[in-house]
Amino acid sequence: MELKGERRLDVDRAAAWAALNDIELLRACIPGCENIAQTGEHAYELMVSLAIGPVKARFKARMTLADIVAPESYTIHFDGQGGVAGFARGDARVSLQQSDTHATTLTYVATAQVGGKLAQLGSRLIDAAAGATTEKFFSSF
To answer: How far apart are the C-alpha atoms of 54 and 84, rounded to whole Å?
Structure first.
């Protein structure tokens, strides 16, 4: 699965970068996120509850940041295990470009693999759920 897009943020790039690296803000914005804990430099553990179609699960996930070029870009690597619901793993490349004095353009390209019951749901349902989750994140962010 691939998910990509672009969003205008009505803040300068420094503020956007700070927000993308604020654990409490991210916890509040990620749909179903119960907890984020830093486990090392640029390494985090998350607990996220998700429902995709008929499959509901709590995912214990690891997330690491790599290829960091502050305040321009980084790559997020993620690996989540949802027990019998299955797993999700992949990466997302996030870039910030200053649009004007008070606006930043955030672009992202994410790729993911799913397995277990999640994989049995079909790509249309998974793609729709991923899109809806992304919309909820950016609405809160």
So the answer is: 13
Element (H, E) at 5: strand 2-9
pLDDT of residue 123: 77
Distance CA 130, CA 141 (A): 16
* Cβ-contact 81, 111 below 8 angstroms: no
Instruction: Encode 91-103 in three state secondary structure.
Output: EEEEEEEEEECCE
Selection from 35-39, 99-103, 121-125 with the highest mean pLDDT: 35-39
Residue (of 79, 76, 87) closest to 52 by Cα position: 87
Over the chain, what is the mean pLDDT? 92
Token pair 């984020």 in the structure block, residue: 36
Reported confidence tier of residue 104, pLDDT bands at 50, 70, 90: very high
Edge to edge, the sheet with strand 55-69 lists 2-9, 103-115, 87-100, 73-81, 55-69, 43-52, 33-40
In the three-class reduction of DSSP (H, G, I as helix; E, B as strand; rest coil), residue 2 is classed as: strand
Separation of CA 56 from chain center: 18
